[in-house]
Amino acid sequence: MDFLSIPTLTGALATLEPLALEHATELAEAVAENDLHKVWYTRPPFPEGMSAEIENRLAKHDAGQIVPWAIRRASDGRAVGMTTFLSIRPDHRRLEIGSTWIAPSAQGTGLNTGVKLLQLTHAFDALDCIAVEFRTHWHNQRSRRAVAALGAKQDGVLRNHDLWRDGTMRDVVVFSIIESEWPTVKLSLTEKLRTPQPNVKTNS
């Protein structure tokens, strides 16, 4: 399968749909919840810039750089976030899952676990990846705990890796799941979705 394809991925808690401008209104409302867009250690789009952000992600997809999805919550059918395949390297059969944000009302519900299971299943089972990477801000403790809870292992820390939009520097914590770990990770995530989820918020 083409690494740049954007299939619709459907799970019990959420559906990942190819990102489109028609998602802009609901996504703007989602990112405005509890002023999510103002959290200093994450970079979700601002509500008023949602259409521009969608257009930016679609342009990057056209350029072969990313694969963007909107996250639609199954319980009420609303678009409540975004997630993306980044750093796509088909020749090395690896990619990164990132630029993810989820509305506060959907956090701690198991939705993020369901979304990651859909993405990881697509990456490992459909695209035959040998590794999937995650990156997050050193100070985003919730995201770091959430990524570790998926079964990813920490590879290291890239210091002064990004210049943040407020002028500060971001140290990037790198995690990954490799091919040999995937069967156990898949089983673990599947079992977690059978039981109530801890209240762990994530935006990475």
UniProtKB/TrEMBL annotation:
Domain N-acetyltransferase: 26-174
SUPFAM superfamilies named in the record: Acyl-CoA N-acyltransferases (Nat)
Top-rank taxon, per record: Bacteria
InterPro entries tied to this protein: Acyl_CoA_acyltransferase, GNAT_dom
Gene3D superfamilies the UniProt entry points to: 3.40.630.30
Protein name according to UniProt: GNAT family protein
Biological source species: Arthrobacter ginkgonis
